[in-house]
Design a protein that fits this description.
With 306 residues, the protein is α/β, with parallel strands linked by helices. The protein has 2 domains: 3-160, 3-Layer(aba) Sandwich (Rossmann fold); 169-205 and 235-271 and 287-302, Alpha-Beta Complex (UDP-galactose 4-epimerase, domain 1), CATH 3.90.25.10. 41% of the residues lie in helices and 15% in strands. The strands form 4 sheets. A 6-stranded parallel beta sheet has the order 2-1-3-4-5-10, sandwiched between helices. α1 (12-23) packs across α7 and α4 packs parallel to α5.
Length: 306
């Protein structure tokens, strides 16, 4: 990479990516909703004066939130994300075909809970709750593949697991499950209260620390092109495991945690197959879940986010 165009640069991954590029002294142009409205089909052309200078486009921008956002706002979400993706792909093809496009999918596009490997990414019908978002992400892959086939443009498409770490969003938007667990258990510790978690706690989830995520993007980008690659640890932990890790880190009595089985449990399992990723990484040394949680918990405490 010599010069990179980044969309969605103000998001969690985007902020950590630009930090890493700064460390590597890589030149980049960081776009976000405050400086470039990607729903405007002329915005990229108007904002970027020398598109031929970029050798990489990292397309992180997407309109989504955790929780029930994808369900209750599915129509709007479909239109907004289709506009964004179409405009970015059009700009790539017309103005920056020399650049390699790095796009991102979503694990909710997978329909199976048992075999989340790349060959199955487009198979079946995604969960109704995430249908619009999942299909928009699938269509982004279709766009990348079709532009590659007809015009020879190079791409890479990552399917991420849940990314976590310090410096997550601090506004009032809903958080991913790990931040909710951390806040609930910290609050229980502070107040001496029991903690009630939804479901039976047996559902499994996968997390990848944000620094490992960013480093993997950059390393895999050097190793391959025109492929879809799952990006995660491939290691599953139950919600009970996560609650236990957090409790031990902050010295909270884990026996005070109760599980309300009358509440929704969510997907039983959600763990990516990372065989392809492992074959592309030269030295895969990811942060342990315990160390990653310690850093994240300290950040939550230091910023009074309980």
């Amino acid at each position: 990479m010599k010069k990179v165009l980044i969309t969605g640069s103000s998001g969690f991954v985007g902020r950590n990516l630009t930090k890493k590029l700064d460390e590597l002294n890589v030149e980049y142009l960081a776009l976000n909703s405050s400086n470039c409205n990607l729903r405007d089909n002329n915005a990229l052309i108007k904002y970027i004066s020398s598109p031929e200078s970029f050798d990489t486009i990292i397309h992180l921008a997407a309109w989504t939130r955790p929780g029930d956002f994808c369900d209750v706002r599915r129509g709007e979400q479909f239109l907004v994300n289709q506009q964004i993706n179409t405009n970015v792909l059009s700009f790539w093809k017309e103005k920056a075909p020399q650049a390699k496009m790095i796009g991102f999918g979503t694990s909710v596009s997978y329909t199976s809970e048992d075999d989340l490997r790349e060959i199955n990414y487009m198979a079946g019908i995604p969960s109704d709750s995430f249908y619009a978002y999942a299909m928009c992400k699938r269509m982004l892959l279709v766009g990348l593949e079709c532009l590659n086939k007809q015009f020879g443009l190079d791409y890479l498409y990552f399917v991420p697991s849940t990314v976590y770490g310090p410096s997550y969003h601090t506004d009032n938007r809903q958080n991913h499950f790990i931040y909710d667990l951390i806040k609930k258990i910290l609050k229980g510790k502070m107040n001496g209260d029991k903690v009630v978690l939804w479901g039976n706690g047996e559902q499994t989830r996968e997390l990848i620390f944000v620094d490992d995520f960013v480093n993997s993007i950059l390393e895999v980008n050097k190793a391959t092109k025109n492929e879809i690659v799952n990006l995660g640890t491939g290691k599953a932990h139950t919600i009970k495991d996560f609650a236990r890790f957090i409790s031990r880190i902050i010295d909270y009595d884990e026996n005070k945690i109760e599980y309300d089985i009358t509440k929704p449990t969510g997907a039983k399992s959600k763990v990516l197959n990372v065989e392809k990723l492992n074959s592309l990484l030269q030295n895969k040394k990811f942060l342990t879940i315990e160390d990653g949680l310690k850093m994240t918990i300290n950040w939550v405490k230091e910023n009074n986010l309980i």
